[in-house]
Amino acid sequence: MRVRIPNQAEILGVTSQTSRPTKNILFTGGRAPVTLELARQFHANGHRVYVAESLPFHICQFSNAVYDNITIPAPNDDLEAFGAALSKVIEEHSIDYLIPTCEEVFHVSRVKSQLPERCTIFADDIGKLRKLHSKKEFMDYASGFGLPTPRTVVVTTLEPVYDALRSGRDIVFKKVFSRFSSDTIVLPRSEQEVSHVVVNEENPWVIQDYLGNEQYCTYSIVIEGVIQAHGTYPTTYTAGQGASTYFEEANVEAIYTWIESFMKAIHYTGQISFDFMKTPSGAFMPIECNPRATSGAHLFDVRDRLDRAFLEKNNELVVPGGERRSMLGLGMLVYGLPKAIKRMTLRRWLGDWFKANDVVFSWKDLLPVLGQFICYAVFIWIALRSKVTVMAASTLDIEWNGHLSPIEVADDIPPGRDEDATNESCNH
Known about the structure:
Radius of gyration: 21 Å
CATH topology: D-amino Acid Aminotransferase, Chain A, domain 1
Strand order of the largest sheet: 3-2-1-4-5
Oligomer: single chain
Structural class: alpha/beta
Distance between the termini: 16 Å
C-alpha cells in the first residue's frame, strides 16, 4: 500500500526550520536542478546541507538552503584528487551522508572505499553501477532474473545495422554509454541515416527493438533492495530527445512492480531511474537505466519527506503527495517553446506552462532563478570551447563511459546473477 509519510512538522504543528539540524548532508553535482531540489527539501526538514562541485559556478551556490559550497577537482581530470577532496570535506564538516546526484556517482563509487567510514555513501558498488549504466549489460542483467526486456544487441560494425534496415525491422540505434538520449537514432529508414556513426570495439553501439513512442520515466530511492520512494511521469516536453522538462505523477503499477522485482533481486542501494516504453499491446518494457538521480525528484515536495527515504529504511513507500505539476522553466522556454511553435501546439504548451510550478523558483530562495542563467552561460562557454552540444557540456567533466582501472576490472561483477541475490528474491 502506498502512503505518504507525514512531515514531523505537520505532526507537531511547528515549522521544520525551528528544529536543530539532525544530519550533516553532502551533495555532489551542485550543477543540477535536482540537487537544488534535494538541498531545499533536506534543509527545510532540519538538516545542514553542504554541496561539493567542480564547476566554478553552479545553481546550488546561489541557494540559501546550502550551508556551504566547496569546490573540488573534476573526477575526469584527477580521480585521486577528487577522492582526496571528498575525504577532506567529510572530515572537516563531520558529514554523515554523502549523496551523489549526477554522473559523478560513478566516480564517487570508484573512490568510496577510500572515504571515511563515519560517512554513509549513498551509492552502490561500481561493478553493479556499470552493468546498470550499460545499455546492453542492463538488459542482460534484468533478463537474467526473468524480467521482460526488449531485444538488444551490441554491434561494433555497421553491417548488422544495415542488415536490420534491409529486413524492415523497426529499431533504435544508440551508444552503449550515453546520457540525455544523445547519440540515439530512432527509427532509421536508410543506411545514409546511420553511415556517419563511428562504431568499433572501443566505441560499441546497440541495436534495440523499437517499442513505440509512449515513454514513461521513473525515479526511485532504494535501500538494500527495498524501494523507499518512487515516482513515475510521462515524457511530454524534453530538452533534446531525452531529458524531461515537465513532471506530473502517472502512478503506473506495472512499472513499479517491474522495478520492485529488479531492485530486490540485485539488492540495490542508491537513487535509480528508468525509462519505460508502453508497447502497442499495453505492456511496459524498460529501454534503459540511469543509476543516479534524475528530474523525477521534482515530483516530490518538502511535505513528502524524501529525506527520510534516504536516511531511514521505512516500511511505507514515499510517493508524490497531491496532484501537482512542476517544470524546469528555463528548459521549457529554451527547448519546449520552439518545438510547440514548430508543431503548432502553442495553446497546449501555454496551458501546461500555467498549470506547473517552476522547480527553480522559490519565494524563500530567489537567487537560483538568476543564477541559472549564469550557469547556462557557463555551459554555453564550455560547449563552444570543447566543440560539443550544450547538453554534453553540462556533464563533460563528470561523465563516465564504463572505463575501469585494471584493479577495478578484476573486482568487477561479471554479467549475470549477483552473488548476494537469492533464489527467493528472484521469485518476486
